[in-house]
What we know:
Blueprint: H1 3-23, H2 32-49, H3 52-68, H4 74-91, H5 104-114, H6 119-168, H7 176-227, H8 232-239, H9 245-256
Amino acid sequence: MDLATIIGMISAFVIITIAIFLGGSINQFMDLPSAxxxxxxxxxxxxxxxxxxxxxxxxxxxAKLAFTHKKxxxxxxxxxxxxLAELQRKSGPLGLExxxxxxxxxxxxxxxxxxxxxxxxxxxxxxxxxxxxxNRLSEGKRxxxxxxxxxxxxxxxxxxxxxxxxxxxxxxxxxxxxSMAIALLTTLYGSVIANVVCLxxxxxxxxxxxxxxxxxxxxxxxxxxxxxxxxPSLIKEMLLAYMPEQHREEMLAAAAA
Length: 257
């Protein structure tokens, strides 16, 4: 579970709520028409940009990766792949079937080796899986970015609607204050949705895209090296190229010790 995302969002809403209570009543900041304009309008504008199936899939993928996805470090993958290579050296390809593997794509690749698939078929299948996975992640990022753009825009539209309604009742000065407050709520709702939910998730998904692209490419390379029956030490040394320089030195020092 990604605690940073959860803690950040909850903290932002708690701070806003505390500020509201310190300055007045929570009821002053609750308005159904304003929420409908921002949420309904933002979702409608997003529907124009993407097919419904893509939006539903993007929301599910984005939420899963942003809130529940467990990050796998490249160094852990390198150690796991070298361990699998050692297992194949001792027990042969069939011995890989009993191995416990953390990553789904790595598990598929090892299963391909155990089933005796050839090198090219393994490479093509795993690269296709990687590309489809990264495409789903990229689509989720695009949908959240679109909603993050639309929410403030519809917040401004709601404000303009409220101002028009306010100007229509200028003959009654007692309605100006409440009408202006309601008009500004749509801008507040749009800004909160964009800056607390959508745009942070876009950055989170963008960072995860880079990490997953590296990890999945590392996995494909490692599986193919195992298929070629290269030594575990050589595989580890080759896969260290995917890691930052500092981590390479740490792993080499640990191996030497």
